[in-house]
Amino acid sequence: MLQVETKLDALREQLPAVRATGYFNAGTNGPMSIAAHQAIVDAATEELKAGRIIPGVYEGHAVNIERVRVQLSRLFGGEADEFALTRSSNEGLSIALNGIDWAPGDEVITTNLEHPLLFAPLGMIAHRYGTKIRVANIGNGGGDIITALERQITGRTRVIALSHVMWSSGAVIDLAAVAELAHAYDALLIVDAAQSAGQVPVNLPETNVDAYAMPGQKWLGCPEGTGALWIPRHRLTDFVPTYVRYCASDPAGYIVPCPGSRRYEMGEAYAPAVLGMEAQLQFLLDEVGPEWMYERTRALADHFLASIENIDGVTVCSPRGQIGGLVCFNINGAIPQDIAAALFERNYTIRYVAYPPGPTVARASIAWWNSDEEVDGMVEELRKIAADPSTIEGKGAPA
Description:
Layout: H1 2-13, E1 22-23, H2 34-50, H3 57-76, E2 83-86, H4 89-98, E3 107-111, H5 116-129, E4 132-136, H6 145-150, E5 157-163, H7 175-184, E6 188-192, H8 204-207, E7 211-215, E8 227-230, E9 247-249, E10 255-257, H9 271-288, H10 290-309, E11 314-316, E12 326-331, H11 336-345, E13 348-349, E14 351-354, E15 360-365, H12 372-387
Parallel strand pairs: 1-13, 3-4, 3-5, 5-6, 6-7
Antiparallel strand pairs: 2-8, 7-8, 9-10, 11-12, 12-15, 14-15
């Protein structure tokens, strides 16, 4: 135990934000390391002082991006050239969904637990192309989701689009099983990895998914405006670039997209953010260690869930045994907005989730950087709130 505590203490020293509050909201934005912050500051300062047009700037930026692709490959599997750098998971989802040759009447299957930034591009393609969205009710994600999804499949199904980790329940979805279902009906599987990247382990080629869109700023702790889209080589022809930067072309209309997933990139990524992302991913790979990171996150979250499950008045909304680090819950007599506000006053930062058709819940993102004492301390504060919910009434803003 001493070794774990020593490692944790050393890592927490590199994450100042986790020492300022009980940091339980990586599902929105994760804590950035000192190394990542310094890389951003140094790069921005260099741009300010030396300018952005000196020889070697573009060549150096390209090299930095290639290094990030290699890091992503180390973290998530797959080949480096299968990763396109994006600015968010939403951008990656939009690239994938808009890259399909839709016809009126084509259908997409999704679930009741999805984030609005998956529903939004699905709605856009429905308006633009006349596609139909079919929503599978999978409860909290802890039951037989394969049967629920298969009930929605018809002869017009082109895509299943869902999250790897459900943002409003914390359920971790068996992607390999969903991919097998999709491919059995000649459909593609597009995955929203907003809550999974950096929270749960994944080897992308082993999942057989067709597109995996992740953000940088959440569980990975990278800067805002960073992310990645993974599309395996054998699926490149299934997703046409919506906008084109890297290609060969001429005025007659001849065009050949760049090899690999780089074809999906816009091009002008903010150089300091790319360097910050590189430094943060290197911190996770070299100092934290992915295996330790995932195991500790899961163990802490399981402990937290089991602890609050035994508090009178607390209802756990996450499926036991099927979570990573997200734990969703409610307290009888209290609304989630008030719970989040009350905990913030007590130096524990969580959030509430309220977006139909999903549930309205309080949500704690339990992560490897949290100490055992912080987790147990938040449990005790929830015990006090559950004993007299009237003490926190009106503390949070209305949904």
